[in-house]
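Reviewers of the previous submission asked for a worked example of the structure-prediction workflow described in the proposal, so we include one complete record here. The input consisted solely of the amino acid sequence. No template or homolog information was supplied to the procedure at any stage.
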Amino acid sequence: MSFNDNDMPQFGGSAGNPIDYTLGLSAFFTKVYGWMAFALVLSGLAAWLTGHNEVIAKAIFTGYTPMILFGAELALVFAIGAGMSRWSASVVTTLFVIYSVVNGLTLGVIFIVYELGSIVSTFAVTALTFGAMSLYGYTTKKDLTGIGKMLFFALIGLVIASIVNLFLQNSMFELVVSAIGVVVFIGLTAYDTQKLKAIAYTAEDQESMTKLAVYGALDLYLDFINLFLYLLRFMGNRRN
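From that input alone, the workflow returned the following structure tokens.
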């Protein structure tokens, strides 16, 4: 599926709350990247706080707390997706903010395991890679739908392989899985960006546009975080 100005459908929005589509896709993607950046900042602050506060770290990484937080993250992601058609934009946005904070708390482990310098450099590489692939997904005329389906199945295999390695604890297998993970999320970044170009034009008013922007921000946020974590396994210097 390729898009150009002549292919773009036009919607007028509701009579009481119309959308100005003269701003085009740029207005929608400004919202998407804005919410994504905000979520990354919240996650980063929560992760830093966890990694530098022994009391919080012990509370999060002991007992059943990690499993509870993981379950809460899954529940929030599913709730955001399921609530798109039922809940208001403010509710969806609040759930996204909560998710980014909870995820940040669990990511605090990277500040315990890795040196700060390698975390910063890996984040910079991730940002540049993500930006390049998202730009490609936005500008390419090539239909990425087929690639997206392949990447989805690769993602399922990646999850299964990661679970298997929890029992194997094989370092070489982990490197292979990490390399595949980098490729998968580089591809998903481009695919998800292109997908959002189509989703943007399903908005009927400002309320639905905000919800779609938050949903898109969640998609790209997950791509960014996973790409960062897989790259960190290669680039990160562990603390002694």
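Residues 76 and 99 are 6 Å apart (CA to CA). We consider this example representative of the routine output the project will generate in years two and three.
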